[in-house]
Structure formats: C-alpha cells, structure tokens
Amino acid sequence: PAARAATTSGRRAAMFDSCRRDIHYLRLSVTDRCNLRCKYCMPNGIECVEHKDILSFEEIRQIAVCGARLGITKIRLTGGEPLARKGCPELIRMLKEIPGIEKIAMTTNGTLVRAILPELVEAGLDEINISLDTLDAGTFAAITGQDLLPEVLLAIDAALAAGLKVKVNAVSMPDTDWKRLITLAKDKPVDVRFIELMPIGEGRHSEGRSNEELLEEIRSEFPQLQADGSVHGAGPAVYYRIPGYQGSIGLISAMHGKFCSSCNRVRLTSTGFLKTCLCYEDGTDLREILRGECVRQEAVSKNQKLLDAMARTIYGKPAEHCFEQPDQITEAHGMSAIGG
Ligand code: SAM
Ligand code: SF4
C-alpha cells in the first residue's frame, strides 16, 4: 500500500518512496543525440539508438499521465540535446495539458534555442537551464568541439527577453574560470550554478573540482558573499548572493555535499527506462509494458500495469548514491543517455 500514490481531496497526489521522500519531479530524456561533443560527456559521440527504439511523444504522454497520477508535478526535458529532436514544442504542449503537471522545464546546451524559442514559450515552457562552462570562445570550442559561444549567449538573452526563468549551469572543473562566468549573474537576472563533476560515463576519467574549495575561493574574492535562503526551484542547489548582482550563485554538490535525503526526482531515458538514481542501473523498462502484446479487453489493465510498475519502481528508489565508492556504481551509460 505504501507504493500507491496518496490523494487527499483538494490536494495533489503524492508519491512517497520507501525513504519517505516526496517524488514529484521527472527528468525526461527525449533523445541521446547531441550536436556538441563536450569533453566530460560524449567526446566521441554515442552509439546511435534506432528511431523505433525511442519512445514516441504519445508513449511519453502516456507515461507522464501515469506519473501525474502518482504525484509528478514538474517535468524537465533533457537529453542528449533535447532540441536535437524535432517537435519539442508539440511535446511540451502535450505534457502541459496533463492534469497535475504544473511546470515544464528544459535543460539545453543553448545552441539550438533561438530559432525555436517563440514556439517553446507558446507551447508552455516555464523555465530553461542553459549549460555553459566558459565565457571564453576558444575554451568553449575546446570543451564542446564547436565554435558556438556567441549563439549560446544570444540564447540566454533571448530566453530572458521572452520572460523565461533562466539558469546557467557550469560543470565545476579545476580550470573553470568562475570569476568570469559569474559576471553573467552580475549583468543579468540569471543564476549561475556550478555542478560538481560526477563519475558517470566520461566523467569517470576526469578530475572535477570540489564546490567546497570553489566556495572558499569565491568567499576570499567576495567577502561580502551572503547565503541566499530564497527558493530558486525544486533542486539541490545551495545559493549565495553577491550584493549588487542581479542573479545568485548556486552550488550543486553531488559529490561533496550529498543531498540524497532530499532527492525528489526520477528519470526516464529516451528508450523508456524509468531510472531512480543516476548511480545505479536499477529501474523498469516501461517501453516493454507500453508495447507489450495485449488483447483488446486488456487495454485498461495495460495502463494499470504501467501505473503499478511506476509506483513500485519509485517506491524502491535507493536511499543514496555511492559516487564515493566508484566500484559500487552499476550505471554503465553516460550522462547523455540517462537524462543528466
Ligand atoms: N545537452 C543538454 C545540456 O548540455 O544542457 C542536456 C543534457 S546534459 C547531459 C545535462 C547536464 O549534464 C549539462 O549541464 C552537462 O554539463 C552535465 N553533465 C554532463 N556530464 C556530467 C558529469 N559527468 N557530471 C556532472 N554533470 C555532467
Ligand atoms: Fe551534449 Fe549536453 Fe553532453 Fe555537452 S553535456 S555533449 S551539450 S549532451
């Protein structure tokens, strides 16, 4: 019974896992493909997944409907590069129409945003996170393999002008020029967030930087740094403010500031695998259920099967990741394949 969503009249459904965490956030990978080749993510590209193996928008919708019945209120489109898949506005519209889904966000590398931005906004996109590791054009090209920094900067401005809430995410590496990056928060109402590198996929082979160390450096440069207790979203970032800056500085410290006890999310891969933690391969193949044989009168029970499988999977979400013991990590896929 604990694996069932509890609904109280007048309140949203809520799904608690076995650790009593309220799971209400679904990260949805719409494609594994990407137009960039970030060094710590997919420097050599990825194995191509055949189109027939990728969930259709209708299949994603069916899963999201069940998710909403179980208490999911926020969905983030990610990937791979979500905008490398055609039709994101249509998908956003379909998801936004689902009763219970309150917010649709997107995490993108920003290079394909501008052309499609009006359609994304019109479809109901609420928030956009743009990944950007540097403000130096040469370093950008060296990290991503493409000379597209100006386009990403224009995308940030366009998203702000369109009224979206914008966050900039940078993976925190020893050579990250954080001083220059945070000027974005000085000049624009965007939060600049530093994410500790996780030992997933290509990230296993690089040395990231601890956000504790970064915070010390920021403090020594800006002694007037203040903790920012205001709510910025549903995520694990810890925020700080520099007086006079329009945006805040966020630290997402999966490695040195484990936040598993407040984790509120699950992930769906582009091929329909519901994953409960980045670190482990655990989860359930929902595509198998969606596409499984069924006789006509079983149509209703297929939906119920999906709902039960999702509830069971979410309930069994692991208590915490094991990034500090790399030999225990069972996830073999890269960040781009698991909805990072
Ligand atoms: N292509 C989109 C983008 O870059 O924003 C969405 C997918 S990308 C996998 C999502 C985020 O994961 C990006 O901000 C990227 O920098 C980050 N990322 C990739 N590999 C990572 C790793 N090993 N550890 C931490 N963050 C990682
Ligand atoms: Fe593409 Fe995002 Fe991975 Fe960079 S981090 S290669 S933009 S999926």
In terms of DSSP E residues, the strand content is 15-25%
The gross shape turns out to be globular
Q: Tell me the total number of β-strands.
A: 12
Small molecules in complex: S-adenosylmethionine, iron/sulfur cluster
Gist of the model:
The protein has 340 residues and is an alpha/beta fold. It is 29% helix and 17% strand. The protein has a 12-stranded mixed sheet with strand order 7-8-9-6-5-4-3-2-1-10-11-12.
Question: Which descriptors would you attach to this protein?
Answer:
alpha/beta; 12-stranded mixed beta sheet; binds iron/sulfur cluster; binds S-adenosylmethionine; 10 helices; globular; 340 residues; 17% strand; 12 strands
Describe this entry's structure for a reader.
The chain is α/β, with parallel strands linked by helices and 340 residues long. It contains 10 helices and 12 strands. It has helices at 57-69, 88-96, 113-123, 137-144, 149-161, 178-181, 183-187, 211-221, 286-291, 299-315, and strands at 25-31, 74-79, 103-108, 127-131, 165-172, 191-196, 226-228, 238-241, 249-252, 265-268, 273-275, 283-285. It has a 12-stranded mixed beta sheet with strand order 7-8-9-6-5-4-3-2-1-10-11-12. Strand 10 (265-268) and strand 11 form a beta hairpin. Helix 1 runs parallel beside helix 2 and helix 2 (88-96) packs parallel to helix 3. The longest helix is centred in the C-terminal third of the chain and has 17 residues, at 299-315. The radius of gyration is 20 Å and the shape is globular. The chain binds S-adenosylmethionine (SAM) and iron/sulfur cluster (SF4). S-adenosylmethionine (SAM) binds next to strand 2, strand 3 and strand 5. S-adenosylmethionine binds next to strand 2, strand 3 and strand 5.
